[in-house]
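This week, study the protein below.
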Amino acid sequence: MTRPYVSIIIPVYNEEKTLQPLMERLYPVAAGLQKPFEIIFTNDGSRDRSLEILRSYVAQYPGVKVVEFNGNFGQHMAILAAFERSSGEIVITLDADLQNPPEEIPRMIAEIEKGHDVVGTIRKKRQDPLFRRVASRIVNITTNKMTGMQMSDYGCMLRAYHRNIIDNINQCGESTTFIPALAQTFSSNPTEIMVGHEERTLGESKYSFYRLIRLNFDLMTGFSLVPLQLFALLGIITSFLAVAFAVLLFVRRFMIGAEVEGVFTLFAILFFFIGIIIFGIGIVGEYVGRIYQEVRKRPRYVVRKTYGFEEP
């Protein structure tokens, strides 16, 4: 078979309602490229009919392939599994929820062909609740400051990568990662474009508030030591303030005398510093936890079966 020029990768988790509308829009776009292509779906342990539908697409649509996970390993692991099995010179990642229109794919390919090795996207007129938009904005600004990267929209998975970037990503064996940031570390000529964003009308978001927090912790602790360095700096400043406060109390005792007033103020200050200590221990725990996950050397994901790939 002709080697694909474009690989389109889509992680799927309980998306039976969106798969058919997705294929009705995606496949004409891929066929309209007039170049060999493959569409790789990774079924990330779906509990609905997603796998059954995807398997039917393998027989129905030439170029469609499916990776079936043994369980739910997460969106980024699903994408990494497809990266390892993709062969296109240009690789596109796309969510299955149709919030990012597949019609934007030709524009992204054109940017790669201009010489860019990573094409990021910025969601125009984002159709998400206000809370998620504000939280995403805060995360984008904070992460850029901590990692030194310049990405405008970390949460948008509609992205394009040159094969060289994918080959470098495939050499990384870390158990938790954030693909857009990882690709950015290998990129020499990235760019960003504005893309459309649509309201989700079918299915439901798979990212709960807790999962979003976990994802952002993976992003910050996986690509920067700044949280640890900031906590160390805060510890130094706190130590100096504590010494200054102790000197102040010592001088006050000799000048004014002993008193019991202000006990609750001291308690408030004490609880504040205890909170800082607990927060710092949590940050250290995040890094230690990542080390623990890496040294166990467990598989990042387990592939049960693949469909549509050439057998060796």
